[in-house]
Amino acid sequence: MAEDFTDKVVLVTGAASGIGLAQAKLFKDNGAIVIAVDKNDISLDVETFKGDVSQADFIENLFTKIKTKFGRIDIVCNTAGILDGYSPVTETSLDQWQNILNVNLTSQFMVIKKALPMMLVQGKGVFVNMASIAGLVADGGGVAYTASKHAVIGMTKQLDVDYAARGIRANCIAPGAINTPMNAADFAGDGKMANWVAEQTPAKRWAKPEEVAELALFLASDRSDYIHGSVVPIDGGWTAK
Ligand code: NAI
Fold first, then answer.
1. Which tens digit of pLDDT belongs to each residue from 28-75?
2. Are 151 and 105 in contact (CB under 8 A)?
3. How far is CA 24 from CA 35, 75, 95, 125, 222, in A?
4. Would you give the distance in Å from CA 16 to the centre of its chain?
5. Are 10 and 33 in contact (CB under 8 A)?
6. Pocket around ligand 1: residues whose beta carbon is below 6 Å from it?
7. What is the dihedral of CA 14, 20, 21, 25, to 10 degrees?
8. Domain segments of the chain: what residues?
C-alpha cells in the first residue's frame, strides 16, 4: 500500500511544467501539503511561489515564508533545470556556463542550505535531487549541462554522507528520455530526432513525466529508508548499454 503523505510539507521546484508538475500533482494526490515553485505561472491548486531559483534573495524570501506559514519541511524535490543546447566548449560562453551551473546546481545548493537546518531540527528530511543520465555519461547535453548534472550527483552523495546519521536522506534521479516541454525541439517537424532517441533507447520509447514522479514519491517515502546517496536511473536502459 502506498504511504500516506498527509501533513507532509513537500517543496517542488520547476513545478510549472514537465517532471516538476507531475511531482507536485502526485504528492498532492497522496495527501501532501505541496509548495510549488517556478519562474513561470503554476496551474495547480497548491501553495505557489513564482520566482527564479538561481537568485539567492528569492530563495531567502521563499524560506522565510515557508517557516512562517508551515514551520517545517519534510521533502524537497529539487527539479527545476534548463538544457544548454548541447554546446561543446568552443560554443559555450562563460556567461552561458555560469547560467547553466547557477540554475541546475547552485539553485539546488541554496535550497538545500535553507531546508537542511529545519530538517535537522525535525530529525528527519528527504532530498530528491534531479540529475540526468547527463550526470552519469556524456552526450546527454552539452558541456555545461553535463558538468552541472555530474555535480548534482556529487553534491547529493556528500550531503547524504554528511547528514545520514542525523535523519537526512538525499538521493538523485537520473532520467533519460522523458517527454516534456524541455525536449519539444526533438518532437518538432517530422519528429525525426525523437524517433532516433526512442530507437537508441533499449526500451524503444520515451517515458512520461508521471513515471519519474512515481520514482520521486518512492524515494521520498519511508519505503526507501535505506536508500542513501544513490543515483537511480530511469532511462529505459540507456546507461546500461
Ligand atoms: P521542463 O522544461 O518541462 O520543466 C522545467 C521547469 O523548471 C519549467 O517549468 C521552468 O520554468 C522551471 N525552471 C527553469 N529554470 C528555472 C529557474 N531559474 N527558476 C525557477 N524555475 C525554473 O523540463 P523537465 O523535462 O520537466 O525537466 C525537469 C528536470 O529534469 C530538469 O532538471 C532537467 O534537467 C531534468 N531532466 C529532464 C530530462 C528530460 O528528458 N525531460 C532528462 C533528464 C533530466
1. 999 999 999 999 999 999 999 999 999 999 999 999 999 999 999 999
2. yes
3. 8, 12, 31, 17, 18
4. 13
5. yes
6. 14, 16-20, 38-40, 52-54, 79-82, 103, 130, 132, 175, 177-178, 180-183, 209
7. -130
8. 9-180+208-231
50 alpha carbon, distance to own chain's centre:
17
CA of 15 to the centre of ligand 1 (A): 9
Ligand 1 geometric centre to CA of 140 (Å): 14
* Percent of the chain scoring above 90 in pLDDT: 98
In this predicted model, what pLDDT tens digit does every residue of 185-208 receive, in sequence order?
A: 999 999 999 999 999 999 999 999
- The answer for residues whose C-beta is within 8 angstroms of residue 88's C-beta and 6 or more apart is 142, 143
In words, the CATH class of domain 9-180+208-231 is alpha beta
Backbone angles phi, psi at 168, to 5 degrees: -100, 140
CB 239 within 8 A of CB 48: no
